[in-house]
TrEMBL record:
Keywords: Phosphoprotein. Residues 19-133 form the Response regulatory domain. It comes from the Bacteria. This is Response regulator. The modification 4-aspartylphosphate is found at residue 68. It comes from Benzoatithermus flavus.
Length: 190
């Protein structure tokens, strides 16, 4: 079994540049995605933290990027501006385990080409990166559950407060610890 190392992970490269930066702190997911991206002809560089991602991006200058929203040392969306300065036109997809409408809107406004909730299939990430429509999705027919509506509202206020937990709790008239517990959990089913 080949050991994944931070930085470069080799892959075949076509005639056009297909350099991809993958930033995720989940080692198993990162390894699976690297294999899938390499099969698709991407040259992949990886990072497991925000700090490492800044260093790798500066040296690698990617054409594509897949960024985890919540990293142990920050938020993946912080990288979007830097990546766009390094390579105008870079296509970025944000991955998250904490899916919300508010954070997806923030990511898309910041310049991400896509926003996907974990668990995610590698083929879905590749299709989003390359701008290929997914015709297999059925439209949502049921309205969101009350728990999901509450979750979305909390996420929207959290984003409006620039991810400041204390300010969000104050605006929602909620105890800060209660809010932290809510934010640490995955989104309820729609």
């Amino acid at each position: 079994m080949q050991k994944e190392q931070p930085g470069m992970a080799g892959g075949r490269v076509g005639s056009e540049s297909r350099k991809l930066l993958l930033v995720d702190d989940e080692v198993a997911l990162r390894k699976n995605l690297v294999r899938a991206f390499e099969r698709e002809g991407f040259e992949v560089a990886t990072a497991g933290s925000l700090k490492e991602a800044y260093d790798v991006a500066a040296d690698f200058c990617p054409d594509y990027a897949v960024l985890d929203l919540n990293l142990q040392d920050g938020y993946g969306m912080e990288l979007i501006g830097t990546l766009q300065e390094l390579r105008p036109g870079v296509r970025i997809v944000i991955l998250t385990g904490y899916d919300s409408i508010a954070s997806s809107l923030v990511a898309l406004k910041a310049g991400a080409a896509g926003y996907l909730a974990k668990p995610v299939q590698a083929e879905q990430v590749v299709a989003t990166l390359l701008g290929q429509a997914d015709d297999g999705l059925e439209p949502l027919v049921r309205p969101m559950s009350a728990d999901r509506v509450r979750w979305e509202h909390i996420q929207r206020v959290f984003e409006q407060c620039n991810r400041n937990v204390s300010e969000t709790a104050r605006r929602l008239n909620m105890h800060r610890r209660t809010l932290q517990r809510i934010l640490s959990k995955r989104a309820p089913r729609p």
